[in-house]
Amino acid sequence: MKKVVLTVASIIIVATVIIVTLIFLRAFRLPFVNVNILGATYSLTHWVGWIGALYIAFATPIYPMVKHRFPKHLRRTLYFHIIGNLTGVLLVSVHFAHQVTRSASNYPDIGTGIVLYATMLILTSTGFIQYSSLAKRFAKQIKFLHPAFALTFYTVIIMHIIQGI
To answer: Of 15, 35, 42, 79, which one's alpha carbon is 20 to 30 angstroms from that of 95?
Structure first.
């Protein structure tokens, strides 16, 4: 089953790279439409980012909780954690790529956004490296860095939301 998860994870990672590259090359863009959800109106790309970030923010702590309270469900939860969060990264990447390719006259302040995106990529990378056993030599460091970047992710996402308000 680990090979299947690694294969699906790799496909999601490759799809993310391809989609983001197409957005940077302006070969693919989501249409600019405003969507109103619960009284909040944002562009479609902004909602895509919100969905990805909220998924990551709420699904990430489920894994350690299950690990400590229900260890017999750990394997299934880990698969959910990996595939779901990589899908969230895909959605956030679409949002980020759209933001940084906006015209100069409409360019956003990406101060916390770029820190948040970098943190999310490092968080994802350390998780992938840890699961795939690519860096067995640095297993202890990666095991420490992954939750440390999760905490950093939560801190920066709060600041990013406050900045946007």
So the answer is: 79
